[in-house]
Design brief:
The structure is a homodimer of 161-residue chains. Chain A has 161 residues and is mainly alpha-helical. Chain A has helices spanning 3-25, 33-45, 50-57, 61-73, 95-116, 121-138, and strands at 48-49, 77-81, 89-93. In chain A, helix 1 (3-25) crosses helix 5, helix 2 crosses helix 5 and helix 3 packs across helix 4. The first copy, chain A, binds a DNA duplex (30 and 30 nucleotides) through helix 2 and helix 4.
DNA sequence: GTCGTAATGTTGCATCCTGCAACTATTTAC
DNA sequence: GTAAATAGTTGCAGGATGCAACATTACGAC
């Protein structure tokens, strides 16, 4: 394959990674990147068991558990006991947690918009098309139907207390 | 501005952030992401004063200092005393440090190549063009002339010991 | 030249992130 | 009904991070 193409993607990659990082840095006052990643998973996939959450984040269950502790302390997430399987713990977003995710995404949009605003409309279209193609090849879910599930901000089913 | 364009970029952004993360996870055995970021800055900008390094990474000087401690312990970086300004400390890469950066970049190239390989050549060209335009608008240095300076792996000038 | 101020790093302290190993509570398989 | 697998939590250890306090060095005003 031609190296030039990869070079172009690699360059843009650095840009976007930087944008994402910045959108968080200035973001939620005291929400860390790790915590934000967890919020995003919960927002996009809905309430998750601890194990699945850990797997989605690619961290050890103990890490996911303690991260959940902190999010709960900040009222960004909740812990529920699974009723089918009483071993399991289900973590879900609170309204506050959802808001943090929404705001961060909004900030990122602004940063990207600032970059695109420098270009004529025709080039913006070309970029949209190319980026869509790329994301599709990578098997990513397109933004306009993201998050995949509305992710109801409630426990999976009636939980006693 | 049209939301669709931003959506496309945002989607591709998630893809690339994931790729970058993965290229490190499997990467240097015990080099963390933070350490890797520092190595990249040193590789791309050459030896840096502690203050500038901290600014480039957007962390506090104390963090940069302690991160440098760890990199030095692993023989990936060196500490020098500035001779013009004896307050300053200059950090530079060792050959080992440079190698870590090169290997991570190579891994990332492979991941991106895997994605692009699914597309016909024409689309690859379109992607290259669009990504270049985007990166240029963001003011990023293109990959084919990166790192900007050869970043000589030596102290800025004759340092006594 | 001397004194006050600014710049550069480092250290102490607190908090978060992380993984591994050990342990408890449940569930499932035989 | 007991053994094995699964789900979480806790103890322990090390890296990442920022803020405040401190020592050194440089620079500017006089």
């Amino acid at each position: 394959m031609e190296g030039t193409v990869i070079d172009a993607v690699l360059t843009a990659s650095r840009t976007l990674v930087a944008v994402s990082t910045r959108s968080l840095g200035a973001a939620a006052e005291h929400t860390t990147i790790a915590q934000y990643r967890m919020l995003v998973v919960l927002a996009s996939r809905g309430p998750q068991r601890m194990v699945d959450l850990a797997a989605a984040l690619d961290v050890a269950p103990s890490t996911a558990g303690r991260m959940t502790d902190r999010l709960v302390r900040k009222k960004l997430a909740r812990r529920h006991r699974g009723r089918n399987d009483r071993r399991s713990v289900v973590v879900s977003l609170t309204a506050d947690g959802r808001q943090v995710v929404d705001e961060a995404t909004a900030r990122r949009r602004v940063l990207i918009e600032d970059i695109l605003a420098k270009l004529p409309s025709a080039q913006q279209q070309a970029i949209a098309s190319a980026f869509e193609t790329f994301a599709a090849a990578a098997g990513e879910v397109p933004e306009h139907l993201w998050p995949p599930t509305p992710a109801a901000d409630v426990p999976p089913a009636g939980v006693p207390a």
